[in-house]
Amino acid sequence: MPDAWRLMSYASCMSEELKRLLAEVRLRPRMTDEERENQARDFAAGNVGIEEPRVTRAVVDEAARRQVGQTR
Q1: Quick one: pLDDT at residue 3?
Q2: For residue 22, which of 7, 5, 2, 1 has the smallest C-alpha distance?
Q3: How far, in Å, CA of 17 to CA of 27, rounded?
Q4: At 1, is the secondary structure helix, strand, or coil?
């Protein structure tokens, strides 16, 4: 079932505020690949940093650069 149809089947259960917010989100531009990569790195640095404070964003950036180099 396409997403639009699935959403319509739930529409009767949604509040007007939720419907408005969903419509607003659909109008926003999608993230670029660069934005998605930055978000993933921030997520990794933040989550690992909770357990290991020596892992910084710079460490995550360096690991990502090495990983990209290995996949080429």
Answers
A1: 66
A2: 7
A3: 16
A4: coil
Separation of CA 17 from chain center: 23
Contact 56, 49 (CB under 8 A): yes
| C-alpha closest to that of 45 among 28, 64, 22, 30 | 64
Task: Please give the model's pTM, rounded to 2 decimal places.
Answer: 0.58
Write the CB contacts of 9 (distance below 8 Å, at least 6 apart in sequence): 1
> Which single residue is written with the structure tokens 């930055």?
38
pLDDT in tens, the chain (72 residues): 456 666 666 667 778 999 899 899 889 888 999 999 999 999 999 999 889 999 999 999 999 999 887 765
Cβ 58 vs Cβ 44: under 8 Å: no
Structure tokens at 8: 């319509």
